[in-house]
Amino acid sequence: MIPGLMQTPPLQIIDILKFAATAHPSVEIVSRLVDEPILRSTYANELKRTARAANALAALGVKAGDRVATLAWNTHRHFELFYAVPGMGAVLNTVNPRLFDEQIVFILNHAEAGVLLFDKTFLPLVERLAPQMQTVKHFVMLSAEGVCAAGKVGALCYETLLAAASDDIGWPVVDENAGAMLCYTSGTTGDPKGVLYSHRGVVLHAMASSMNSAFGFDAFDVVMPCSSLFHASAWGLPFAAPMCGCKLALPCEKMDGASLQELIVNEGVTFTGGVPTIWTMYLAYLEQTHQTPGKLKRVVIGGSAVPRAMAETFKKKYGVQVLQIWGMTETAPLGVIATPTPALAALGEEAMDEAIWTRQGRLQFGIELRVVDDDGRDVPWDGESSGALLVRGPWTIRRYYRGANDVADADGWFDTGDIATLDQYGFMRITDRKKDVIKSGGEWISSIDLENVAVACPGVKIAAVIGVPHPKWEERPVLVIEKHDGADLCEQDVLAYLAPHIVKWWTPDAVVFDTVPLTATGKIDKKVLRERYKALLS
Amino acid sequence: MIPGLMQTPPLQIIDILKFAATAHPSVEIVSRLVDEPILRSTYANELKRTARAANALAALGVKAGDRVATLAWNTHRHFELFYAVPGMGAVLNTVNPRLFDEQIVFILNHAEAGVLLFDKTFLPLVERLAPQMQTVKHFVMLSAEGVCAAGKVGALCYETLLAAASDDIGWPVVDENAGAMLCYTSGTTGDPKGVLYSHRGVVLHAMASSMNSAFGFDAFDVVMPCSSLFHASAWGLPFAAPMCGCKLALPCEKMDGASLQELIVNEGVTFTGGVPTIWTMYLAYLEQTHQTPGKLKRVVIGGSAVPRAMAETFKKKYGVQVLQIWGMTETAPLGVIATPTPALAALGEEAMDEAIWTRQGRLQFGIELRVVDDDGRDVPWDGESSGALLVRGPWTIRRYYRGANDVADADGWFDTGDIATLDQYGFMRITDRKKDVIKSGGEWISSIDLENVAVACPGVKIAAVIGVPHPKWEERPVLVIEKHDGADLCEQDVLAYLAPHIVKWWTPDAVVFDTVPLTATGKIDKKVLRERYKALLS
Fold first, then answer.
1. Do A393 and B340 lie within an 8 Å CB cutoff?
2. Is A159 a catalytic residue?
């Protein structure tokens, strides 16, 4: 090989905001805030405020490589920290405030964060946990002067710090492989694990996710991230949107129908995304108030399978396209997204909708997928054969933060822990989590497939299927149902509903009615359910 | 800084084709060929043929780092070499066959190419120049068996080599900064200069140019590159199109209206691009034959300013959007492209069209622009103040091939040699080449602005404005006009036409009627004109 002779500037996160401030200076970022009115800013202004934030943090002693933590909602201030902290060569640790106290404490101590910035909502939480925080020296409340409260921790005021800081800064040149964002995953077992995104990974992810195979942003889009900024960077939207010159509407923590509709209509939101629960509430709100979703064109839904009725309502009633998406903290997070292709379109609109609504999505440039059997051999791409889902690429994890060993193998393949299929159209479907799949008499039953059928049964609010130890078959499925308020439903009704939709040997051995416990990230906590019902079939 | 913990696979060109073959295996690549019927292939098949090509080249002795040259049109075989040669860690040197003999010889000897692959068209050229080629050991004709001719150089047959080669290959891991593509620029002075694109630069360029701010490709697009693959990789379309799963239609050298229309209609072309001359012929063909351009939606036009009438005809008569573009071999080549923005749209459709048709385009993520005065200070972004256009970024040149010094400064800024303005919308307009600007009494006159007015004068086929030495004013403009056949036009007619469109002191001191000489890349050869008329005003 001979060396190429092009320039080799590092890919740096701050360059995204510099670009937006230069090419799209007057494009707005509109933000709800805790106990403050909606704020309107622009990318030009945000670059200046980001410089102030970096100078203010430097004055608090933050240096390159240091970890700076947040407990914060989707606001413009949190957005600024997404650029200020990596911009100065430090690492932003976005902590999920919905975790258990001990997990939050574990994360802050494990990350060794020196500064913690938090929204006013979390003052009681911060006051409660502060005595256990071993490294946090400075607390900063993300509020305006006059709204701020110092509390027992003597919190500084973010806007006071910014007002005192200069907007003149020489952003350092940062190694593109340096750590930039530190996001912890909270499985249902063990301590949270940190995924340390690099500048390079974040920038490449933003470029890839902006393309038409994924989000397909253009400068006319108005993007409203309704997944949390603390949860794998909200699909990286705070990076992709300014890269494409999109206006940003940030909902803070207000995910109720009325609040979302206000932003959607007033700000002309064209693109949003979040977990299905939010959209169930939003559609109910539209129905009740006889409104329509303004200029909204696309809703990206991840976290769990899209209910079919939701996708149909969005499309047929409101002309909004619902796109499934799959990813994980370890993939920064984009894995696949279900956008149309000519090969699918050739099957006709109904078949294409079916594919797009029932599969997590299609292959994207920059993240490779494999589905392998127990011997590590690729299964056929037939949409039927399932196996362990492996991924690799420049925004896929190599090693957890402070981990002793790589979690990707020598060829870069990372085992996602998901069971999936791939089909001839390059679409991937998650059939289960490896630990949730039900092993019945040597065969596998997909808990997710069963849940997807059961949740469509009238009266069912949440359906959870778990494998329960069985004396003869090793495991058999048990269906746990949380009913809608006032729903009248018994085991026979449910089994009768399931019968035409599933093969007979998948029929649950028991249907129980119970409240379904959720994890801090809103997923069904099957570990708790498995423990609760472990003796049901013995 | 602390190291991030994501994977760091190199960005490699071959991964683009691997992705297309995996995610879009049945998407077609359709190619015209010299003396052969139209050929239909797919990305899955192209990856196999690319492996065969690499194995065949290895059998000829090509090793990583070696240069492999082509004299070839826009065909699937040339496309294969865009992947096979960089894929094996070697460098593809795409030579412009329209250059003068001595330039072609210079390039091949300077690049030290060991293998030359060429289309049948160029056999006489190759035979004529072979005795002067100091390093070429193997000649390969890019034809099918039966069509091939060995000629005086004993050329091997590409398809014979491929048929004998295995499609099994372990693509090597290539350093992403290694040289991949070597493109020579031919200015009007001095020897051609080589620009050595890296894998990293090409992949990032393909990602950026795929975004909606630029080409905005999706999997439903059918892309027909009508600029030459040997000319700065035809805007990188052979890389961006497969990355987005677009079908490719390759016109070989057939750029006449009938041939283009056949591909456009039969293959469903949605996107094409090339120099204005091609589209003048194409629009005339549509007019004469009363046809419409099928599914064509966008035509990207670069190389010189888009004639207003052409843009209006495309839009108003055929619903096709014309987008200007600017770039150079040294920028791989995307610099800016004139796509809509909300800020422009707010001005109304006419004003937006005006902006998009009269400016080269807007800022793109990944390439930074500055316009500076003689003291190196940024001029105001007011659309009026002009200065030297500087660029930098990961697909901008650092140094010419075998050059002794960097041509970008310590901060990465490369002086393009163009004079330009930037406006508040982030749109750049080229007002002149630095060497063509006319210095009259301490003020600058833009030769391009004058030409754009003059070319709209009825009867004018080509208008060229040059600065001619003047005893009092240093230089004064002279307008050289090549008339349409049979046009009746005199100096007074032209001056009368210009008067209402220009400030008085820009009025040319002389209008002469002559044939206008063009360079090998189709640009007006002002060097020749300046020499021819140097004494006109003395």
1. no
2. no
